[in-house]
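Priority: medium. Attachment 1 of 2:
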């Protein structure tokens, strides 16, 4: 009997990430993942009983990193620069936002393990959202962001801008800069 190739959780997460972005949630399977990792499907089933367990485990791991990165930002002194830092962080994790939009949140009976991961995901999302909400509120209080625009709408705009398909073939950095400019200053030239 041939020895099974060794792979780490990080290897599995990396390939899951790539496959979800290339084939989507519905076409993602342990068969595709096993082929990408050059292992048998049985090797993956040693860790997870189905794709939802793996995907939620992966998403929670990424959200924990995102929240940790947000907690560890060394903020620059002025608010507009801080907004750039925040936007860059959100854009850095843009793929995880895309993946979270494609994964169904209901419709079937979940195992206890998936329910637990969904709950962890919600907790991490809520924590991240609250930090960003506080940041936007601070910008409104200091007069940098218009008070009349609901904070939730600003946050939705930022997160959805990250998921816009890159049909313009800009680099990730160029896209982030232009989207931030559009959000902060609009598309019209000052006259």
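Attachment 2 of 2:
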């Amino acid at each position: 009997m041939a020895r099974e190739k060794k792979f780490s959780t990080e290897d599995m997460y990396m390939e899951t990430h790539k496959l979800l972005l290339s084939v989507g949630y519905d076409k993602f399977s342990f068969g595709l993942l096993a082929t990408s990792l050059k292992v048998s499907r049985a090797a993956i089933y040693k860790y997870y009983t189905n794709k939802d367990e793996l995907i939620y485990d992966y998403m929670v791991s990424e959200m924990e990193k995102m929240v940790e990165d947000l907690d560890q930002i060394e903020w620059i002194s002025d608010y507009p620069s801080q907004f750039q830092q925040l936007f860059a962080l959100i854009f850095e994790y843009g793929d995880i936002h895309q993946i979270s939009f494609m994964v169904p949140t209901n419709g079937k009976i979940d195992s206890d393990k998936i329910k637990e991961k969904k709950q962890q995901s919600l907790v991490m999302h809520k924590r991240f959202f609250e930090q960003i909400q506080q940041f936007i509120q601070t910008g409104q209080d200091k007069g940098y962001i218009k008070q009349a625009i609901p904070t939730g709408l600003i946050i939705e705009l930022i997160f959805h801008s990250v998921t816009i398909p890159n049909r313009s073939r800009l680099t990730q950095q160029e896209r982030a800069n232009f989207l931030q400019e559009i959000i902060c200053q609009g598309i019209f030239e000052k006259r």
